[in-house]
Amino acid sequence: MTPRRTFAVTPRGPRAARRLATGTGFVVLAWSIGLLWFAFSLPRSVADPDIKTDAIVVLTGGSGRVSQGLELLSEGRARKLFVSGVYRGVDVRELLRVSRQSPQELACCIALGYQADNTHGNAVETRAWLREQNLRSLRLVTSAYHMPRSLLEFRRLMPAMEIVPHPVFPEDFKPERWWHWPAGTGLIVSEYSKYLIALAWNFLAGVPAK
């Protein structure tokens, strides 16, 4: 009778668990470092406040954005103003009334977009309006924490467009002390996560990050 062979069985459970824990720890560490980089790289001021562009584009969704866009238009920083992501039923007259600034004679220079309900949609409807108006440069007005993701989306869809970022700084958001404020922490984490998704889409589309 041939003797029965025996084989040593190496337990794989603990080893796999250690690898999983190591990999998870690495991902969490990389995500945390990226979060800190994102938070501390947010704009603290307007880098090019005096450059004139063909249009001013305001993305709705945060305090102070529309009023800032109207102020820039009244100062002559551009010939036209486009507000993307406006609620249906709101017209230019209502927009001027709510803003409590900007003279009525500017109404002829303002256009509203009603199709967008997210940042990608903002870029899509803005691109369509810019092509219709044959414009080649814009000043992008949105909140400072929203600017990185907005630039990714706009540059992906309009790589030849000259885009001048114009961040707005809401009074209730303190970028230099965001970790002291639970709502600020949640906002940064949310925006960073959305930024990573937009960055991934750029990578899949073969668009270099700028």
Give a short synopsis of this structure.
The protein has 210 residues and is α/β, with parallel strands linked by helices.
Assign an overall shape: elongated
Task: Name the helix and strand elements from N-terminus to C-terminus, one letter apiece.
Answer: HEHEHEHEHEH
CATH architecture of the domain at 55-170: 3-Layer(aba) Sandwich
Could you name the CATH class of the domain at 55-170? Alpha Beta
How far the N terminus sits from the C terminus, by CA atoms, comes to 73 Å
Largest sheet: 5 strands, parallel
> Going by CATH, what is the homologous superfamily of the domain at 55-170?
HUPs
Description:
By secondary structure, the chain is α/β, with parallel strands linked by helices. The protein is 46% helix and 13% strand. The protein is built from six helices and five strands; from the N terminus they run αβαβαβαβαβα. It has helices at 13-40, 65-74, 92-99, 119-133, 147-157, 182-205; strands spanning 55-59, 80-84, 110-113, 137-143, 162-168. Strands 3-2-1-4-5 form a five-stranded parallel β-sheet, sandwiched between helices. Helix 5 packs parallel to helix 6. The longest helix is centred in the first third of the chain and has 28 residues, at 13-40.
